[in-house]
């Protein structure tokens, strides 16, 4: 009788399911069969013996398998894993303006610096902030060149979000009439299929989305609205991931790359939350947790 199934991500083989009987790993099945075992809908294919899997070892206890995972030659070594934290926008091209008149660049700097500290404290001492100056394509090229020169293993671009003008309303704050929109709230993640490590980019985005959702942070689907300037394809609604192939920083990074829109700063309530150290710590903690899993799941050899 099958005790349980255990989902495993092997560095070279991807996701698979271990079949556990009486505390011993006896075989491997596909995700489809695992679903049928879990809900009792059967029939399922017979588990393949671990002896038939070239990257695996003979049947073993879960404890033995966990020991093997710990000593795997692709296990995470945080201090040697190079992370480029790209601070979106520049002082000269500062991005969106919040409901209270604060420039996006300020939000990006605050979050990136707090995230850098969190990652270094978590063992990822090879974390580097990427900044640029100026406007237009030159500053985009500058930040990509800097990240690529680092030999980064992952690039994460930090941004805060806006909405299209058709959703703006007006309110008076600080003596000035300002734009706001409380219609949408939440984070978004973007990946580019033109990145040479798209599969790894998507894998990290899924891990990060899962960690953000675990902290009760929600995904905003407003970039999929069928309107001018949006209509983006959602790759994974559960994790909150969009496809945006032509995002320059993602497209031309030689490392896996993900862009994070941490939240919507024209939403008056979310702006206050995003301004708080507590929210920045939540987001930074999600990034750290995702990195720990990503770092150990993939070796860094070229695809």
TrEMBL record:
CDD domains: MurNAc-LAA. Residues 61-72 have a biased composition (Polar residues). It is an enzyme of class 3 (hydrolase). It catalyses: Hydrolyzes the link between N-acetylmuramoyl residues and L-amino acid residues in certain cell-wall glycopeptides. Its EC number is 3.5.1.28. Keywords: Hydrolase. One of its GO terms (cellular component) is outer membrane-bounded periplasmic space. It holds the Pfam family Amidase_3. Residues 144-292 form the MurNAc-LAA domain. It comes from the Bacteria. InterPro entries: MurNAc-LAA_cat, N-acetylmuramoyl_amidase_3. GO terms for biological process: peptidoglycan catabolic process. GO terms for molecular function: N-acetylmuramoyl-L-alanine amidase activity. Residues 36-72 are annotated as: Disordered. This is N-acetylmuramoyl-L-alanine amidase. It comes from Bradyrhizobium barranii subsp. barranii. The lineage of its organism: Bacteria, Pseudomonadati, Pseudomonadota, Alphaproteobacteria, Hyphomicrobiales.
């Amino acid at each position: 009788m099958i005790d349980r199934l255990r989902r495993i991500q092997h560095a070279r083989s991807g996701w698979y399911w271990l079949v556990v009987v009486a505390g011993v790993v006896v075989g491997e099945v596909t995700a489809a069969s695992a679903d049928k075992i879990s809900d009792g809908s059967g029939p399922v294919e017979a588990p393949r013996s671990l002896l038939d899997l070239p990257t695996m070892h003979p049947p073993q206890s879960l404890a033995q398998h966990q020991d093997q995972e710990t000593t795997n030659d692709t296990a995470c070594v945080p201090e040697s894993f190079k992370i480029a934290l790209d601070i979106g926008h520049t002082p000269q091209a500062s991005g969106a303006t919040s409901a209270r008149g604060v420039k996006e660049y300020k939000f990006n700097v605050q979050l990136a610096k707090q995230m850098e500290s969190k990652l270094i404290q978590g063992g990822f001492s090879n974390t580097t902030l990427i900044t640029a100056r100026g406007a237009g394509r030159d500053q985009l090229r500058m930040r990509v060149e800097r990240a690529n020169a680092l030999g980064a293993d992952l690039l994460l671009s930090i941004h805060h979000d806006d909405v299209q003008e058709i959703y703006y309303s007006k309110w008076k704050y600080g003596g000035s009439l300002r734009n706001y929109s409380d219609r949408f709230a939440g984070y978004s993640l973007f990946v580019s299929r033109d990145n040479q490590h798209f599969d790894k980019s998507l894998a990290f985005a899924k891990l990060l989305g899962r960690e953000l959702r675990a902290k009760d942070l929600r995904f905003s689907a407003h970039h999929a609205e069928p309107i001018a300037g949006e209509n983006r394809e959602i790759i994974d609604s559960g994790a909150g991931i969009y496809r945006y192939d032509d995002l320059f920083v993602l497209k031309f990074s030689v490392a896996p790359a993900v862009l994070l829109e941490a939240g919507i700063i024209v939403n008056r309530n979310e702006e206050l939350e995003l301004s708080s150290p507590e929210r920045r710590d939540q987001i930074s903690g999600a990034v750290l947790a995702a990195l720990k899993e990503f770092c150990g799941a993939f070796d860094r050899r070229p695809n």
